[in-house]
Design brief:
Low-confidence stretches: none
Number of strands: 22
Strand content: 15-25%
Strand order of the largest sheet: 6-9-10-22-21-20-17-11
Largest sheet: 8 strands, mixed
Structural class: alpha+beta
Distance between the termini: 55 Å
C-alpha cells in the first residue's frame, strides 16, 4: 500500500478509480505515451503501480500544456490536477484506471530521457542481450516488473510461513572453505593468507548441519549460492535458495511440513495445491516416466515389453534382452500420421539421450502400419504390443532396447520432447515428491562411486550393512520436489553419526586423512551430540519462474547473467589491474 507521507506525490497512477473523481491529486512517474490531438495533449503517465491518462488542456493551464508539448517517452514528470470521469465512449476497459483521467493544472519535468534502445511495452520483441544491457529500462516493462513483484510476494510468504512454524532465519558465511559438492567452486584469493583461497558457497549445506548441532533446531535462510557450471535456461552462476533445516524429524515429518508451506506460498500466485502431494519412488519415476523429475500433466508413460519380445526374431531386441537389458516403449498420440522425415528427426533427440538408434512403428489414423521393423515382428508380438500400450489409430510407438536405466532415460527424453511437439501440456500445475533415491551412483569418468545427492545423506537404516559390500543397492532418505517436470527443491535426512559419516566417505574414496582435511570441522561437530536432522533447499528462481509462467529464470532475476555467464550491463567478468593481482599474490599467464 502506498503511503503518501513519504513522497512528492499524493497518489500512485495505477490506483486511481471512479471513486476518486473530483479529488485533487499529485502524480509522478514516466511518460509512457504521448498523443497530440491539436488542441489537447494526452499523456499516459506510468509508475510502478500502473498508468493513468493525463489530459493537458491550454484552457486549464497554458504552462502545463507547454510542458506536455515538450515531453517525450520516458521523461520523468510530476503533475497535479483533478480526477474526472472519461467522456462517454472513451473509457478503456483494458486499464484498471480506464474509467478516469486527470485534468492537469500543473506540470514539471523532473528529468529528461534519451530515446530508449527499445520500447517499454510488453508486446515488443527485443533481443535479450540488448534488454539485459539496459536492464534498468527493461525493468519498466510490465512483464518484468510483475515477475519481480511476484518474486517479492513469494519470498515474503516463505518467511511468514516458516516463522509461523518456529523457524529462525540465520545468515551463514559467503566466504568459506572449498569442499567437494558436485559442481566447481568459485574461489576467492585471500590477500592476508598468500596462496590460500576462500570458496563462495554452492549451498549452506555444512553450515546448516552445524546449526542443528548448535541446537537451533529449526533454521531457514533466503540464501545466495554460487556454482561454476555450464549454464542453461534454469541455471545461473549465482542463484537463490530457500534453505531449510530441522532437528528431531522423520522424512514424513519434513515432507508434510513442506507441503503445508508450499500450499501457502503458491497461493500467493493464485495456484491451489491439493494436499497431500503424490509420492513416487525414484525407481517408479524412472520406470514409468524415464525421469526423476516427471511431468505428470500428460500420459505417454513407459511400458516394459521385455516379456513380449523374449525370443524375438528382431536382433536388436533379442541382443538387448540377452545382455540383461530391457525393451521399453511409449505411444505418442497423433504422431502416427507424421511423415517419415519428421519421425526420423527424432533420431538425434534419442541419440543425444544415449540411444544407438530409434526403432518405431506408426499406426496411421487410416489403419495403415508403417515401420522399418514391423516385418521382423510376429503377429503375436504385434498383438501383444497393441494390447499392452493400448495403441489407437494415429499413435506412433517408439522403442528403446538397452540396459534398463539407459532405455528409461532415452524414452523419458523423447516423452518430454514429444509432449512439446504434440501440444499435450495444456497448462496447470502438477506437483509431487520423488523419494528414496540411491545413496550412490557410479561415476564412469572418475571410475568410482559418487554421492547421488551429497556425501552427508543418511542411508536407509535397514541398508547399513550393505554400504561397503553392495553400494548400488543402498537407498537413502532423500526427496525432490517436482513441479511441472522441473525440480524446484531437493533435500535429505543427514548423517548425524560420525562413524557412519566416515563409512560413507570411504566408499566415495575419501579416506580418513582426506576426510579430516576436508570435513574435519563437521566430523568434530557430529561427535558432540548431533541430533537427527534433515532439510531441503528450494530453488526460489525456478519456483517463481514456473508460477510466473516464464521459460527462463533470467526472467525473474533482477540482474541476471547471459548463458555465457556474462553481465551485459556491467561488463563482468572483466580484467583487474596488475596491482590488484599482486595484492592477492596472483598473476595471469
Amino acid at each position: 500500500m502506498f503511503d503518501a507521507r513519504y513522497s512528492i506525490r499524493s497518489h500512485v497512477a495505477g490506483a486511481l478509480r471512479a471513486s476518486d473523481v473530483g479529488e485533487r491529486v499529485t502524480l509522478a512517474g514516466w511518460v509512457h505515451r504521448r498523443r497530440d490531438h491539436g488542441g489537447l495533449v494526452f499523456v499516459d503517465l506510468r509508475d510502478r503501480s500502473g498508468l493513468v491518462q493525463c489530459v493537458f488542456d491550454p484552457a486549464e493551464s497554458v504552462a502545463a500544456f507547454a510542458v506536455a508539448e515538450a515531453v517525450r517517452p520516458e521523461w520523468v514528470v510530476r503533475v497535479s490536477g483533478t480526477v474526472r470521469k472519461r467522456p462517454p465512449g472513451t473509457e478503456n476497459p483494458a486499464l484498471a484506471t480506464g474509467e478516469v483521467e486527470v485534468l492537469v493544472a500543473e506540470a514539471e519535468v523532473l528529468n529528461k530521457s534519451e530515446t530508449p534502445p527499445f520500447e517499454v511495452d510488453t508486446a515488443i520483441a527485443t533481443d535479450e542481450t540488448l534488454r539485459l544491457k539496459h536492464r534498468y529500462i527493461d525493468m519498466r516493462r510490465p512483464e518484468v516488473l510483475e515477475a519481480l513483484v511476484l518474486r517479492d510476494r513469494i519470498t515474503q510468504r516463505f518467511r511468514k510461513a516458516l516463522e509461523h512454524r518456529g523457524f529462525i532465519e540465520v545468515e551463514t558465511p559467503m566466504l568459506g572453505r572449498s569442499t567437494p559438492e558436485g559442481a566447481r567452486d568459485f574461489i576467492v584469493p585471500s590477500r592476508l593468507n598468500p596462496g590460500e583461497f576462500y570458496a563462495l558457497p554452492q549451498s549452506p549445506q555444512l553450515y546448516k548441519q552445524l546449526l542443528m548441532v548448535g541446537g537451533i533446531e529449526r533454521y531457514y535462510q533466503i540464501a545466495r549460492c554460487f556454482r561454476d557450471e555450464d549454464l542453461r535456461a534454469d541455471r545461473q552462476p549465482e542463484f537463490t535458495q530457500v534453505d531449510i533445516e530441522m532437528s528431531f524429524v522423520t522424512q514424513d515429518d519434513l515432507l508434510q511440513m513442506m507441503e503445508e508451506v508450499m500450499h501457502e506460498v503458491v497461493r500467493e500466485a493464485g495456484v491451489d495445491l491439493p494436499l497431500p502431494l503424490p509420492r513416487l519412488t525414484y525407481a517408479e519415476a524412472m520406470d514409468r516416466f524415464g525421469s526423476d523429475r516427471p511431468d505428470t500433466r500428460f500420459g505417454m508413460e513407459l511400458h516394459d515389453l521385455s516379456d513380449v519380445f523374449a525370443g524375438s526374431a528382431f536382433k536388436v531386441f533379442a541382443s538387448a534382452l540377452e545382455a540383461g537389458g530391457a525393451v521399453k516403449a511409449i505411444a505418442a498420440p497423433g504422431a502416427g500420421d507424421w511423415s517419415r522425415g519428421r519421425i526420423d528427426a527424432l533420431q538425434p533427440v534419442a541419440q543425444e539421450a544415449g540411444a544407438k538408434g530409434l526403432a518405431w512403428i506408426a499406426f496411421t489414423s487410416e489403419g495403415e502400419v508403417r515401420s522399418p521393423i514391423a516385418k521382423f515382428l510376429s503377429e503375436q508380438e504385434m498383438a501383444a504390443l497393441r494390447e499392452r500400450l493400448g495403441v489407437a489409430p494415429g499413435d506412433l510407438v517408439l522403442f528403446a532396447a538397452d540396459e534398463r536405466m539407459a532405455a528409461n532415460e532415452v524414452l523419458g527424453t523423447l516423452r518430454t520432447h514429444l509432449a512439446g511437439e504434440l501440444g499435450l501440456v495444456k497448462g496447470g500445475f502438477s506437483c509431487l515428491w520423488v523419494v528414496d533415491f540411491p545413496l550412490f551412483k557410479w561415476d564412469t569418468e572418475e571410475d568410482k562411486w559418487s554421492a547421488n545427492h551429497h556425501p552427508f545423506t543418511r542411508p536407509f537404516d535397514e541398508h547399513l550393512d550393505r554400504i561397503e559390500s553392495d553400494p548400488a543397492s543402498v537407498l537413502s532418505y532423500s526427496y525432490d520436489l517436482v513441479m511441472n517436470g522441473v525440480e524446484v527443491g531437493g533435500g535429505t535426512l543427514r548423517i548425524h553419526d560420525p562413524e557412519l559419516q566416515r563409512r560413507v566417505l570411504a566408499v566415495l574414496g575419501i579416506g580418513e586423512e582426506d576426510a579430516r582435511e576436508q570435513f574435519g570441522f563437521l566430523l568434530d561437530a557430529l561427535a558432540y551430540g548431533a541430533p537427527p536432522h534433515g532439510g531441503i533447499a528450494l530453488g526460489l528462481d525456478r519456483l517463481v519462474m514456473l508460477l510466473a509462467g516464464k521459460h527462463s529464470i533470467r526472467d525473474v532475476i533482477a540482474f541476471p547473467k547471459t548463458s555465457s555467464g556474462a553481465c551485459p550491463l556491467t561488463g563482468a567478468p572483466a580484467p583487474v589491474s596488475a596491482r590488484q593481482l599482486r595484492e592477492v599474490h596472483l598473476r595471469t599467464e
